[in-house]
Amino acid sequence: MVDAQRSDNRWPGIFKSTTGMVFFGTPFRGAGGLDQTVMLWAEQSQYVEDQIQGAILNILPPGNESLTDLITYFLETRQGEGKAYIACFFEQKPSNVGAILGVNRIQKFVVDEPSGCLDQSKSTEKYSLSRDHFGMNKFGRPEEEDFQTVCEVIEKMVERSPGVLTTRNKEHRSSGHDDFRVPFRLTGLPVVGNFVNRQTEMGQIEDSLLPSTTQDRRRIHVLHGLGGIGKTQLAIAFARKHQERYSAILWLNGNSKDTLSQCLAGFARYTDIDGTPGSTISPMGRG
């Protein structure tokens, strides 16, 4: 879907016409119950060597940077009112991962609930299935309770589809300032599954930064505190919650001069600073 949004010429109509998606045990934050050795053995037991997708195996460990970026890109596609409905199904039973290696019985959850749910927002529906990871999409009879649950979810998506498409068309017709907007991107930032909202702090940020008709001035808000208390996730939550109220939200990595320059160069692609005559990015001096 990320590729379809970015390259409509290559994937014509795919992104615009997709109104619902169903995920079965998808490891959005990695497969914590399987290490790479077990995953490789599982692949080798099912496929010949040239069919094994090593690149996919490399991103499955929890915390993998490429996987985090991919989820971030996907979440960025879910902007506006006409977003596709998403249903995430996660396993309720541990899997016998020991059977993969032919050793003693080892029971583990391959993709637990936090990893199996795209995010904790209301726009993502979450359902549990009474089965292990390897049986998530395998049903024996139409009368099975889990199969009935999946059917109901898909039927609901189909019923909602006309409304989603209508909303998208209205939003497209009413947007008269798309050429002046910078696409919302939070590349490289961690996505957490269980963000705990700090309502007091969020309210303070909103009072400081949200646009107002009574004040016309530059607004600055410094979010500070000890490391690890959730400053980054709070800032991300504010950006996602209010992204439609701004023409641009720029996230700059200030760890070093080089990372900051790279961020600025990346944003330049979405502005008039695009390499055309007269458009330049000046070297940053020390401040």
Q: Could you explain the architecture of this structure?
A:
By secondary structure, the protein is mainly alpha-helical. Helices cover 39% and strands 8% of the residues. The protein has eleven helices and five strands, in the order ααβαααββαβαβαααα. It has helices spanning 2-6, 14-17, 36-46, 54-59, 65-76, 98-101, 113-116, 145-174, 199-209, 231-242, 257-268; strands at residues 20-24, 85-91, 95-96, 107-108, 124-129. It has a three-stranded parallel beta sheet with strand order 1-2-5, with helices on one face. The protein is globular, with a radius of gyration of 22 Å. It starts with a helix and ends in a 19-residue tail after the last helix. 12% of the residues are buried. Residues 46-57 and 273-287 have low confidence and may be disordered.
Features:
mainly alpha, three-stranded parallel beta sheet, two-stranded antiparallel ribbon, 5 strands, globular
